[in-house]
Specification:
By secondary structure, the chain is of the alpha/beta class. The protein is built from 12 helices and 9 strands. The protein folds into 2 domains: 206 residues, Spore Coat Polysaccharide Biosynthesis Protein SpsA, Chain A, CATH 3.90.550.10; 67 residues.
């Protein structure tokens, strides 16, 4: 089987749209849909429940990261696709991914473009990532690679550890960072998924998510391969400035945790990266990256495109 789409649900009315957006895909590749019911009660009857390509799994309000892992555990697909119940696939998505998989058979992480929509389902902007290959530095800096627009090879997903229950609220970003630490990203220009913007009807606790995001990122920085992998993807002065910032902001956070040895280690790595980056620290782009919060290059391109002025 080519692909398993896993949809955890808390019973939102948009679930039918999400499921049917997959079932209506025109592709010769076999696929399945696994709906993980995490509502704690039966779902209302719907025609899609009779489709032979759909299977149902019941969990007991254990949060979406656990529900997604449960769906992945019973999936048959060579690739796994994680779709929220308020997002949906666009026509031609599976065909575009299948074409990409055929042309890039070594690809463990396949990414398409993403159409962002508001809660009234009106298009806002399109995210067209120009990045591919080793994207660990951008991922650590804060670049978003939507899982709704991604296929992940099943073996790679499990080798990475799946969704981290300790990163609740930021588990998508956390998984993307672990993937980017270990594998190369390949992409297609096809727009494959529509993803809702805004906090309305969101189930994420933002305050808790930010704290756990810090903790999850620290676990990545503790990996022996973290610095070499970031360095390999920091190919210009801007990204080398971001690399130093990752370590210095980590040191600041660790001060709040009173982990003094880790503070010293992070500062040393940051200073070491500055020395290794020479002569990049003589360039304005380096200090702009080091001194300020990350502004997504992909979002900037999307905004420019939305107002009719594509970024040059």
């Amino acid at each position: 089987m080519f692909c398993s789409t896993i949809i955890p649900t808390i019973g939102r009315q948009t679930l039918t749209r999400a499921v049917e957006s997959v079932l209506q895909q025109e592709t010769v590749q076999p696929f399945e849909v696994i709906v993980v019911n995490d509502t704690g009660r039966p779902l209302p009857a719907a025609p899609w429940q009779q489709d032979r390509r759909v299977s149902m799994l019941t969990t007991t309000r254990v949060e979406r990261c656990v529900a997604r892992n449960a769906g992945a555990a019973v999936a048959h697909g060579r690739y796994l696709h994680f779709l929220d119940d308020d997002d949906y696939l666009l026509p031609g998505a599976l065909a575009a991914w299948a074409e990409l998989a055929a042309s890039q058979p070594q690809g463990d992480w396949l990414l398409g473009a993403t159409q962002l929509v508001d809660r009234a389902n009106q298009p806002q902007l399109c995210l067209r990532h120009a990045m591919q290959g080793n994207v660990f530095m951008p991922a650590m800096a804060g670049e978003w690679f939507p899982l709704q627009a991604s296929l992940i090879r099943a073996e790679t997903f499990f080798a990475t550890g799946g969704f981290n229950p300790l990163a609740v609220g930021e588990e998508d970003i956390d998984l993307g960072r672990w993937l980017s630490l270990r594998v190369q990203l390949v992409r297609t220009t096809a727009v494959v998924a529509a993803v809702g913007m805004g906090s309305e009807n969101s189930t994420t606790n933002q305050r808790q998510a930010r704290q756990r995001s810090h903790q999850a990122r620290e676990a990545l920085l503790n990996q022996a391969e973290a610095f070499p992998r970031m360095w390999q993807s920091a190919t210009d002065a801007f990204w080398r400035g971001r690399l130093a910032r990752v370590y210095f902001t980590s040191a600041v956070w660790q001060i709040g945790q009173r982990r003094w040895w880790t503070v010293v280690s992070r500062v040393a790595w940051g200073l070491g990266s500055m020395a290794k980056s020479w002569p990049a620290p003589t360039q304005r782009a380096y200090w702009r990256a080091l001194s300020g919060p990350y502004q997504s290059l992909t979002f900037a391109q999307g905004y420019q495109e939305a107002i009719g002025h594509p970024a040059g």
